[in-house]
Design a protein that fits this description.
OB fold (Dihydrolipoamide Acetyltransferase, E2P), single chain, six-stranded parallel β-sheet, alpha/beta, Rossmann fold
Amino acid sequence: MQPSLEKLRKFFRLEHENGYNDTAVIGGLGKVVDPWSNEARLEGVPEDIVQLVATTLRAYAEQRPPERAAALKALWQQIRARIPETAGAEETLKRPARRAPSTTPAVPDRDGAGEVARSETVTPVPEPTPPLSRAPEVQPHGAPRASRPTSPRVGQPVALNASLQVLTGVGPRHAAMLARLGLNTLGDMLYHFPRRYEDYSRLKPIHRLWYGEEVTVVGTIQLLESRKIRGGTATLIEAVIHDGTGSLRLIWFNQPWLVNRMKVGDAISVSGKVEQYLGRLVMNNPDWEPVEVENLHTNRIVPIYPLTANVTQKWLRRLMYQVVTYWAPKLSDHLPETIRREVSLLELGEALRQVHFPDSQEKLQEGRRRLAFDEIFLLQMGVLRQKRDWQAAAARRFLVRDPWLQERLAALPYALTNAQRRALEEIWKDFASGRPMNRLLQGDVGSGKTVVAALAAALVTHAGAQAAIMAPTSLLAGQHYQTFCTLLTERDRALLPEQIRLLVGDTSEKEKEEIRAGLVSGAIKIVIGTHALLEEPVTFADLQFVVIDEQHRFGVAQRAALRAKGANPHLLVMTATPIPRSLALTIYGDLDLSVMDEMPAGRQPVATYVLMPRERERAYTLIRGQVAAGRQAFIVYPLIEESENLEVAAAVDEHARLQRDIFPDLKLGLLHGRMRPEEKDEVMARFRAGEYHILVTTTVIEVGVDIPNATVMLIEGADRFGLAQLHQLRGRVGRGAAQAYCLLIPSREDEVENERLAAMVETNDGFVLAERDLQQRGPGEFLGTRQAGFVSSLRMASLSDVALIEQARVQAQRLFEQDPDLQAPEHALLAEAVSRFWGGGKGDVS
């Protein structure tokens, strides 16, 4: 055995005798890493063993004694497996100790690598628990990554928590650069996935190359020269390679060292894009390698990683290859084998290897599928836990009496649809369960969700409790207030007008004080408002029912703050944005779902047309005709480059142009997000009263605006909107008995965009459009800040892959039914993976 390994064994023996208190060497085992590593390399100890020892000892001081014992034992076992001559020494570790443990630390010798301990025998080190795999760590949205290695958990390979400086060629400067990519530990690198791939695996002969291709070519260098260009300020390296079928010119700019790394006659493999110069095919700045080395950069499917300043693709790729090929196979899989077998998934280590350095396109897809399954599965386990915890709480019961219900229904101005009745029955059942309701009411534009919420609130207030309804804008809150007052005070007489109040940001301070006092005393039964409801002075006597409208506009903390103003109140969240089935199964999986997919009687589908910019005059003609018939119209302009200033400028400028040049004989109103709340309310009141024929606006009217007399929705720059948002805007018209029209004018004549917009013409079904939007634009249209944060952390899973989501959901539900807290020994790795995925807390997604 090499002296360096013998020395290491004696350090470990003494550390065991001292109770793993890091006193075997003065200053701790971490002090011996550098001198020991130098000695070991001189003796020819394999580099992977040197790095493994360095990684383990550097992390040793941060661990607890049981973790240290497991780490040293695991390290020595790996050394024994790698270096056969250490096998005999392993037996000495298993003999019982002959005397009491010594507490005398070894004194570093002259070369700093430590001195041998006096004791020669020790009691056996306990067997370590199996190494934990590293699950995909989804950071809570906005949370910074750790800037230093975290303390390793029992059983997790300690090396995965080591600084990247243990890697050859990575010093403090390089480590700082990698930290900007979120790479602080070896484990981080395993989950730093490529952003795309270049498939250079299909070699082509030079005579079959085509302009614009990205290919790999192998040839022999026939010409190699360097020359100065641009007055000597830059260097150009030119080479010509030949493969027997033709020649190809290669050019590199400002890489003068290349002339020393290749020579005429060398066989090289080059990969890049085929371009043309003076009629000849050329590659500019291609990747290249000698053909005898392992082709990390050419002649394969090459990963392309996200980069940062001063980090090159080739350097990072070599580093990734070093880490992935060594550590990925050593990971233990947190996913139970039964699930892997049933769903036909790769093992974790193999999946990581194939995602980073795939053997083929098929293997790449298999690897991505495994990691995507992990993300959805872990998300589902947490969502199921949230739902269970919520249902475990107790809530006040509210029972529906038939006479009371019949009175309420008889007072309505119209008969409820079957969908509305079904939603109410589900809500009544929740009210009577004794558990807090946690329900998502999902209904298309104009399906009558507000009526359902009002009837639910009426039941709660009839029993003497209070209800709070929170909307994202004062415009929508004011509209809800009018609806509730009409239904519950004017028609129904279930409540007095003063028992329903509106609380928004511009409510006068005197009125706010009056409302707050009424809520504390219980005199006010229903309060409808915006974020103003969340203010600290707002408290309730007995809040039992919370309604959150357009729930994705609010953060989790805001919803929780309102809910916390009562004791486990019943919660109903509403959205007019149809949510695709895959999102309902994942992100909103902890909510019970009520779907209202039926429109009130008498509603006609909105006739929708896509017009080219040159056909804009046809839209103006339709608007003039509708205004002449006593109707009104919206003209909507998009949010340009997500800049509120630009949004206002566009709306203001177009309002002036339309009033001056197009509709000089009509009255045009202007509405945009920069106006004060009272200004918005005044404009909408005047439009509702018919004082304006046309309202020029931005997307501020996307939700909650109810103008039955409006029959035309003209949307400029329609290609800038998602289908779900266009559907929301279309829902602002067609709310009366007259035929309504939606005209979509894209900003340019683009076939792809116009094909997407054609879906609006084909269907008025918001759920169909939502599925298409999810596939084309991703889930952002349907998610709030917190949900979007979680989804952005799903680096492999696609929320449009319903088949995979169904598989993960079924497996998660089955496992949750068997072992909800993952207490079984075989689920220990999975329990830690779930904890890491959810950031160590229970969280709240929906």
